[in-house]
Fold this sequence. Notes:
The protein has one helix spanning 6-85. It is mostly helical. It has one domain. The longest helix has 80 residues, at 6-85. It is rod-shaped, with a radius of gyration of 37 Å.
Amino acid sequence: xxxxxxxxxxxxxxxxxxxxxxxxxxxxxxxxxxxxxxxxxxxxxxxxxxxxxxxxxxxxxxxxxxxxxxxxxxxxxxxxxxxxxx
Length: 86
């Protein structure tokens, strides 16, 4: 370093600063991309959660309908012989 002039040292310092700034810009770009991916992921997970809730509600309704049908069938099984005997 003793052989380098003040101008050479300044030039090298400027080069290192430029490289550092470029690296910082790249890292910032990657961070923004990661943030965007995270936001999209959260949005999709929220939508999927809503879909699962709707599916669960549909399954609950099917289960309720099945119970009502079973009750109706049991009632029919009891009443049908009575109707035949009339």
